[in-house]
Amino acid sequence: MVITLEPGAAREVIEQIERLAARYPGIQPRRHTFQGAGHTVVEIHLVGQTATVPTDPFEAVPGVRRVVRVSTKYRVIGRHGGEAGPEGFTYNGVRIAPGQLHVFAGLCAVDTREHVDQMMAALAREGIVTTRMGAYKPRTSPYDFQGLGAECLPWVFELAGKHGVKIVAMEVTDASHVEEIRDALEAAGSPTGVMLQIGTRNTQNFELLKRVGQQRQFPVLFKRGMGITLEESLNACEYVASEGNPDIVFCLRGVKTHLGDPHRNLVDFAHVPVVRRQTRLSVCIDPSHSVGRAAAAPDGLADIYHVTGQGLIAGASMVLVDFHPRPELALCDGPQALTLDELGPFVEYCRRVRETYESLVKTRPQV
Ligand code: PEP
Ligand code: MN
Question: Is 164 left (phi over 0), alpha (psi -120 to 50) or beta?
Answer without folding.
Answer: left
